[in-house]
Amino acid sequence: MPPTRAMFTLCLVALLAQSVRADPLRLVLGTATPGGGFPAYGAALASAIHEVDPDLIIETQASGGSAENVGLLRAGTVDLALVQGEVA
């Protein structure tokens, strides 16, 4: 899924969920090692979602990258993760 499409989808989910929850929702987003593109994209995504819905909190978590993120998703350690298309 292209990044802009993924961001749109997450924002839409945030807007729909806003009407049914009372407490802030915290989600963990697996990114990658500091200094690469995934952490920068993850931070921008978390910021954009926070602007749309301040009660939806996306916490970024550094990881080893795509391969590790797939494992973290399977284990339920993170709620969301950035994964390169070829790995997914």
Description:
- It is a single chain.
- The chain has 88 residues and is α/β, with parallel strands linked by helices.
- The protein has one domain (3-81).
- It is 48% helix and 16% strand.
- It is built from three helices and three strands, in the order αβαβαβ.
- Strands 2-1-3 form a three-stranded parallel sheet.
- Helix 1 packs parallel to helix 2 (37-52).
Features of the shown structure:
88 residues; alpha/beta; 3 helices; 3 strands
Q: Give the SSE order as H and E letters.
A: HEHEHE
- Sheet-strand content, in percent, reads 15-25%
**Strand order in the largest sheet:** 2-1-3
Whole-number mean pLDDT = 87
Helix content: 40-55%
Overall strand count: 3
Q: How would the global form be characterised? A: globular
Termini Cα gap: 11 Å
How many domains?
1
User: Mind describing the biggest β-sheet?
Assistant: 3 strands, parallel
As a whole number of angstroms, the C-alpha radius of gyration is: 13 Å
Poorly predicted ranges? none
Number of helices: 3
Structural class: alpha/beta
Briefly say what this structure is:
With 88 residues, this protein is an alpha/beta fold. It contains three helices and three strands; from the N terminus they run H-E-H-E-H-E. It has a three-stranded parallel sheet with strand order 2-1-3.
Question: What's the arrangement of secondary structure elements?
Answer:
Elements: H1 3-18, E1 25-30, H2 37-52, E2 56-61, H3 66-75, E3 80-81
Helix pairs in contact: 1-2
